[in-house]
Design brief:
By secondary structure, the protein is α/β, with parallel strands linked by helices. It is built from 8 helices and 4 strands. It has helices spanning 18-33, 55-58, 79-84, 93-102, 113-125, 141-153, 156-161, 178-202, and strands at 6-12, 38-44, 87-90, 110-112.
Length: 204
Amino acid sequence: MTDPHATVLFVCTGNICRSAYGHHLLTQQLEQSVPGRYQVTSAGTQINPRLVVPPQITALQRASTLQSLAAHSPTQVSGRTVQKADLVLAATADHLRSVLGETPGALSRSFTMLEFGAAAQAVAEGTVPAWPGPESDSSTLPENLRSLARHLSRHRPTVRSSMDSIDLPDPYGREDAAYPAMAAALEPAVDRITDLLVDVARRS
């Protein structure tokens, strides 16, 4: 039987800037390293279906290779979507509260994007213990990703204490410079998350 893919869900407000960019960037990087092992999706807490990804996002340097980003359509987050996700990555603590208000059972697998990136870095540097690995030889990738998330959630205070903020600022409607500033914070986090998720896939 084919091992089911694991699901990562990005969440922000309108699902056209932060979560959309993280979604398509992580998708590309995972497909290059462990094709077919993950499904990355995104959604917003207050979407406007008439809006599209702004040109300031598609103009970002690393967005130039993300062909799927230009065709992105905003999706409203739902409890069902959150329940199905093996890892939830929100833009800010407020988005986490919104998600968990409807689906409190997702707490141990929900983080902000920057927080989970910092957790991945802490694992790489040894300041947070590494994930011990699959709980059994028959564990699937979705089960292992949830196990990793639970492990890192236990070290949330350590990770957060090393950060100035767990929130990724919203560039939408601000000056053009706010967009590359957002990318400069998000891209390294996505890179670290990619490395961690690739490792989990290769151990599953």
